[in-house]
Amino acid sequence: MIKVSMSLNRIYVLGHANSAPRGLDIVCAAVSALTLTLIQGLKSIALMELQENVEPGNVCIEWQTLNDTGKALIDTWFLGICRIAEEYQGIHFINGD
């Protein structure tokens, strides 16, 4: 199961969907693509400074200041994650700190 946790200055994406064998799991691929694109967008488009940790099954994104562009990108990412969660099992939202 993929666990998604958000707070005012942090996003965690942890785990795997386990909906198919490794390398064939479209849920994991979709969440990974959205999340990695979010990181690049926050850095390149929103020009935000991030602390990031990206490992298989474990992504943490942290920031000190969130600008309007960054908020729009995060909101768009969240809509995408919610849409995937509606269509496929394997994503669980947990309270951020």
Automatic annotation (TrEMBL):
It comes from the Bacteria. GO terms for molecular function: cysteine-type peptidase activity. Keywords: Hydrolase, Protease, Ribosome biogenesis, Thiol protease. Transmembrane segments: none annotated. The keyword Glycoprotein does not apply. Gene3D superfamilies: Cysteine protease Prp (3.30.70.1490). One of its GO terms (biological process) is proteolysis. Belongs to the Prp family. This is Ribosomal processing cysteine protease Prp.
